[in-house]
Amino acid sequence: MTGKSEASAAIEIREVFFHYDERQILKDVNLTIRPYDSVCIVGPNGGGKTTLIKLIIGLLKPDSGTISIYGKRPDEAHQLIGYVPQYAQYDRQFPISVQEVVCMGRLGSSFTGRYSKRDKEKTLAALNEVGLADMVNRSFSALSGGQRQRVLIARALASGGEILILDEPTANIDRESETHFFDLLRELNRRMTILMVTHDVGFASSFFTRIACVNREVIIHPTSEMTGRLIRDMYGGDLQMIRHDHSCSNGGHTRG
Question: With CB atoms 3.0 to 4.6 Å apart as the test, which of 42, 121, 126, 247 could cross-link to 158 if both were Cys?
């Protein structure tokens, strides 16, 4: 853990409003994510989850309010964030290797048109961390859904960021792969802040310490408070609540 990370919030959102055309998407959002937090984002379709992520990573700007990443504006903090999108758009016929996919995570690191020795070392280190170092030359399209997801995480890790943001990363993998996925997140959470969007709150509850419920506003709940009834009452029926044992417990809930 770095002194820098100990000193400030990983993500600080204050009084943020955002709308598309005439439709208000987010209203007076206040949220603090501490270094090495593990926070799950849930909410109904259209409630603002994806918009919130886009604001954090700097793809959108708020109408008002502030967002900071370790004290920097999102557009100044790209190197601090590794992002894993919900869907990886790629042509299955395109002959791209696992190593080449992960190397893309180095494009923002003063890229000069050719990958350096350091870029390749970082790529191999990231693949080793997700347990795929032996597949470095394998075709990306030949991998299983769970393996592809780990490659995309490796790509995010290769950027060298301190925050890992994932959007519905378990949507296209089976339960066994999902179990291995959360084992990997536990290891990564020892050195990174983790923020993840999901619909499967119950399975995620075995890992996350807090859950951010997004429906125009954002309310934070300790994992231990989340029940199927609470989710249905607040956010409708489009979230899954499958009960699993978990060791996370906190008291009370807060708006940020």
Answer: 126
E strands, the chain, are 11-20, 23-33, 38-42, 64-69, 81-84, 163-167, 193-197, 210-215, 217-222
Q: Which residues of the chain have pLDDT under 70?
A: 1-7, 87-93, 108-113, 200-205, 225-256
* C-alpha triplet 48, 229, 43: angle, nearest 5°: 10
Is residue 254 in a domain? Answer: no
DSSP annotation of 240 reads B
Instruction: Give the Cα separation of 18 and 20 in Å (integer).
Output: 7
User: In one letter, which amino acid is 214?
Assistant: V
Provide the CB-side half-sphere exposure for 199 (13 A, CA). 15
The pLDDT of residue 88: 62
Q: Which amino acid is at 61?
A: K
Give the count of domains, the chain: 1
Domain CATH code at residue 132: 3.40.50.300
Q: Using CA atoms, how far apart are residues 27 and 34, in angstroms rounded to an integer?
A: 22
Instruction: Specify if 69 maps to a domain.
Output: yes
Do 168 and 197 form a contact (C-beta atoms < 8 A)? yes
**Residue-number span of the structural domain to which 163 is assigned:** 11-235
pLDDT of the residue at 243: 44
In whole angstroms, how large is the CA radius of gyration of the chain?
18
Nearest to 28 by CA among 50, 57, 52: 52
42 contacts: CB under 8 Å, gap ≥ 6: 49, 197, 198, 199, 201, 211, 212, 213, 214, 231, 235, 239
The DSSP call for residue 200 is B
